[in-house]
UniProtKB/TrEMBL annotation:
<dbReference type="InterPro" id="IPR036388">
    <property type="entry name" value="WH-like_DNA-bd_sf"/>
</dbReference>
<dbReference type="GO" id="GO:0043565">
    <property type="term" value="F:sequence-specific DNA binding"/>
</dbReference>
<keyword id="KW-0804">Transcription</keyword>
<dbReference type="InterPro" id="IPR005119">
    <property type="entry name" value="LysR_subst-bd"/>
</dbReference>
<dbReference type="InterPro" id="IPR058163">
    <property type="entry name" value="LysR-type_TF_proteobact-type"/>
</dbReference>
<protein>
    <submittedName>
        <fullName>HTH-type transcriptional regulator DmlR</fullName>
    </submittedName>
</protein>
<dbReference type="Pfam" id="PF03466">
    <property type="entry name" value="LysR_substrate"/>
</dbReference>
<dbReference type="GO" id="GO:0003700">
    <property type="term" value="F:DNA-binding transcription factor activity"/>
</dbReference>
<dbReference type="Pfam" id="PF00126">
    <property type="entry name" value="HTH_1"/>
</dbReference>
<keyword id="KW-0805">Transcription regulation</keyword>
<keyword id="KW-0238">DNA-binding</keyword>
<comment type="similarity">
    <text>Belongs to the LysR transcriptional regulatory family.</text>
</comment>
<dbReference type="GO" id="GO:0006351">
    <property type="term" value="P:DNA-templated transcription"/>
</dbReference>
<dbReference type="InterPro" id="IPR036390">
    <property type="entry name" value="WH_DNA-bd_sf"/>
</dbReference>
<feature type="domain" description="HTH lysR-type">
    <location>
        <begin position="1"/>
        <end position="59"/>
    </location>
</feature>
<dbReference type="InterPro" id="IPR000847">
    <property type="entry name" value="LysR_HTH_N"/>
</dbReference>
Amino acid sequence: MDRLLSMEIFVAVVELGSLTAAATRHEMSAAMAAKHIKGLEARLGLRLMNRTTRRQSLTEAGQAYYARCKEILADIRDAEQGAEALRVAPRGNLRITSTVSFGSFALAPAIADYLDRYPDVSVELALSDAVEDLVASRYDLAVRIGEPRDSGLVARAIGRYQMIICAAPAYLARHGTPETPADLARHQCLDFSYWSRRTGWRLADGEGAQADYPPTSRFVSNNGQALRQAALAGFGIVLQPELLLADDVRAGKLTPILQPYWPDARPVSLLYPKDRQALPKLTTFVEFVVARFTGKGGRR
């Protein structure tokens, strides 16, 4: 038998004064209500009620059990009301993971604006260029660069991610400007460690295809900001997201080079688990970010 239902019936019998009244409240027969009480007594190995043909009263054990049942059922109601509140209005904590550059330069300002709008929501943003399992790591949402591969997740496109190649004017003045990707073999490249472990720099070949160019590098890092700083110091050529280098390009601190060979822009997507009863904290955040980066609300 359902233990919680049995506890509710027991409390109803005590408060309403009769088994019949408790059975009526729970829309069952008096015989079934009696089975619930007997089931509790059998489970506990204690008599909870003294019964006569006209009345019933609590035993000492029954009085103690009744008090605890009241507390437990009240706690359950509070928990259910709290869960219901989560379904009604955006509240609670969102755990989000994103790539470092997009997360720090583009997503973080959007999160700040979202939190201003929804004061009952908090956000934990984890930045990493390593791809983590969304469900296993218990994230509510991930921002991923590239074509989504996990068909078990909902994917919402929010934009394109362009990588650009730049160098400081001082570096180009000393070493010259490469004209093709093959020329990079004669230059100092600032390499991103996740690429060097795989294919190197994947660039367009000028004919609509792509090719891999292992860079010549004495400076390798897993952080784009570190590579940017080395480029600004004139140490070498950097391949990093446009959003990371755009201010330096506008200020003339970095010069774009090899534009015809830049990698194709890749999609930026929000990924999150399928859930027919997704909480408002997630649904409102997704719609807010989609509108922020695409200028459109609703599903596309």
